[in-house]
Amino acid sequence: MEAKDHYSPGTRVRSLTLPTPEFISAERPKRNRDNRFSLESRFPPSCQCTEKTTANKAALDLSVPASNLLVKNRKNAWIQLAGHPGSFAPAGPKTIWKKRLVKENYETLAYQALCEYQQSKNIMPTFHREVEFNGEYFIEIEDLLHHFNDPSIMDIKMGTRTFLEVEVKNPVLRKDLYEKMVKVDPNAPTAEERAQEAITKLRYMQFREHESSTASLGFRIEAIRMSGEPPNTNLKKVRTKEEVSYFIETFVKGHEVVIPSLHQRLCDIRDKFESIPFFQSHEIIGSSLLIMFDSSNHAGVWMIDFAKTIPVENTLTHREPWEQGNHEDGYLTGLDNLVEIFGELSQKQQQQGEAS
């Protein structure tokens, strides 16, 4: 896979020769003779501007759709279910821009590396290019919502650990984190912590993960958006397997027919994950599985968010318990439990169908 920089005023785009997923339909960026995505006029995205609004401003206002011209042909209204507010924006009818919020370009590197593996095809958004614009960096990726009509969406944060090891190395006791802990659960601090009225960041992060299903199941439901309704992100207390199953059943209510296909899709993602060497040498922190279906019972699951997918020196199982320095993240622990839950729900649906 080769890469080449393209330039236009104020914009640098790094384009890649990539495989074309089978489910992407006709309207795609044009390719040149070398089979690379050509820049044309898409960066910055074109828009119809008034005298008081410039094209550059419209393209980079990441808290709203870039322009009416850009989004008028989109199937769905713009939705950001989770993540940092203002970090996503439509780039066109079938793609989105995602803003790099940290100096390191781990997400671009992850997408570039994963594109080398045939197994990764269709389990993650198609990566198109990286963009530098006015000193900020973006990646353009496939808008997965394009395959659906007003879908219901569930964002599941994967792993038993949702923080990087470097983020919790500082042993300093912090009063602000103690106050945050007490606000969530007044009974959580130990006697020593009460006396100090301060805790380390590691203690706070692990406390927070035990409040949800992250620590016990290796994933948590980050957000749910039912078709036609605003997102629900008040799910941080969903902790037990029974509670998770209840929310998933509520999520698919009236569309239970999608459960077997979602179960099979999760199994497929797990098989492909385990077969890709890249994942054995990278910790995967803060990544999600995005589950969607619509009124036609078209359904799918994809891996998203690789901003904290970082290379490590040791080989990872993604199932071993985390200890400081081993970089284990519990991603496959979470996927195993999701496969089990969806399998049980699929079996339950089958039994109910046979009984009726």
TrEMBL record:
The keyword Magnesium does not apply. GO terms for biological process: inositol phosphate biosynthetic process; phosphatidylinositol phosphate biosynthetic process. It comes from the Eukaryota. Gene3D superfamilies: Inositol polyphosphate kinase (3.30.470.160). It comes from Biomphalaria glabrata (Bloodfluke planorb). InterPro entries: IPK, IPK_sf. The gene is LOC106060110. The keyword Kinase applies. GO terms for molecular function: inositol hexakisphosphate kinase activity. This is Kinase. Its EC number is 2.7.-.-.
